[in-house]
Design brief:
Blueprint (H helix, E strand, L loop, with lengths): L2 H15 L15 H7 L6 E6 L6 E2 L5 E2 L4 E6 L4 E6 L5 H12 L5 H13 L3 H5 L8
Parallel strand pairs: 1-5
Antiparallel strand pairs: 2-3, 4-5
Helix pairs in contact: 3-4
The structure holds zinc ion (ZN).
Amino acid sequence: MSVGEYFRKRMENDLSLNKNDCVGFVPIQRDSIEYWQSVLDLWAWKVMCTPISEMQVIDDLYGDLPGHEFVGVVIDDRLKIANIYHTRHLRKDDIIHELLHVRFQTWTEEEVVVWTNKLNDSEDPMSLMSQFEFTPV
Ligand SMILES: [Zn+2]
């Protein structure tokens, strides 16, 4: 094995170790978390995904019974870590929705939903977001 081959193999191994847990997404694509982090100016944040079982989700709307579909984000402002917990494959609108919660933490659920739809339908989400005064978060 040549030196170049050795390092290529090592890199491949390292990449597979660091592989993101987000099921159904390939990095640096339009629907990727990285893309929406850049749209929402969240580069300082570490965004993680944690797949969980529906049996781990208890929803008081359903009488505290487990077994419900769930996507939600847990935000650590101090460490700038956002962890998206999900029971199913994440869709583009899930990513947008949860990252909007991170970016605009004072927004109501309704505002997040409205802007998730706007961004999800937009051909040019970058310029759509440029109307907001961006102070680094
Ligand atoms: Zn929400």
